[in-house]
Write a structure and sequence with these properties.
This protein has helices spanning 2-22, 54-60, 97-103, 154-167, 187-204; strands at residues 40-41, 44-48, 64-71, 77-85, 107-115, 125-133, 136-146, 149-151, 173-182. By secondary structure, it is α+β, with helices and mostly antiparallel strands. The protein is globular, with a radius of gyration of 21 Å.
Length: 214
């Protein structure tokens, strides 16, 4: 009987220790603030755009973000948005572009996945979508990044969030999104925008390790 009581006490103690560990508040900061992202990325020169208004930021629930436009030497634009979340436990979760863009009037007309150009990481696969609003068309590349992983799937992103919260008590993550306009109506214009977006991502990707925790 005494052995059973001791075993039960040990089990209860282990359960208490586990609950105490996973209930600790997360303190996961960016390695550097996103505002320190270089204004020059490869051959691309960055320019500030107006800050998001408080209503949008409240909906996003983001803890730190960057929203800029970078221009290639021939002045072709690439819009960069990175949103970082210290924690996703309190209802502030990453919003998928597939949900946000239609809300702004942009409708996805194509969707697939591609490897990050020149990353050297075969598992670094990202989303590529083409969106349309009226006669305006854009190419969007985006992915989720956390704990050294690049994730394209929204579903796997949620699964990893749960697993990481159990293993490491961390739910921090970032959304990285690049948008390039399609400046014509033919397939060549779309292919050109896609190449420019991929060139920008190739220059950007090595810099992210300076900011996003692993």
């Amino acid at each position: 009987m005494n052995n059973r009581i001791i075993l039960l006490c040990l089990i209860l103690l282990a359960a208490w220790a586990f609950i105490a560990q996973v209930s600790k508040p997360e303190v996961v900061q960016l390695r550097e603030p996103l505002s320190e992202m270089p204004m020059r990325i490869g051959d691309w020169e960055g320019r500030q755009v107006p800050d998001m208004d408080s209503r949008v930021l409240s909906i996003l629930g983001v803890d730190d973000y960057i929203n800029r436009v970078y221009y290639s030497p021939e002045l072709f634009p690439a819009s960069l948005y990175i949103g970082f979340y210290h924690s996703q436990r309190e209802g502030d979760t990453i919003h998928s572009p597939l949900n946000c863009l239609p809300g702004a009037g942009w409708n996805p007309v194509k969707s697939d996945r591609i490897p990050i150009p020149g990353s050297g990481n075969s598992s670094a696969v990202i989303n590529r979508i083409v969106i349309l609003k009226g006669i305006d068309k854009q190419v969007v590349l985006y992915w989720y990044q956390s704990h050294g992983r690049v994730i394209a799937s929204e579903y796997w992103g949620k699964i990893y969030t749960v697993l990481d919260s159990l293993r490491t008590n961390r739910t921090d993550a970032a959304l990285v999104r690049v948008i390039c306009p399609v400046t014509g109506t033919d397939a060549q214009a779309e292919a050109f925008a896609e190449r420019r977006a991929m060139e920008f991502v190739k220059a950007l990707y090595p810099l992210l390790a300076r900011f996003i925790p692993v």
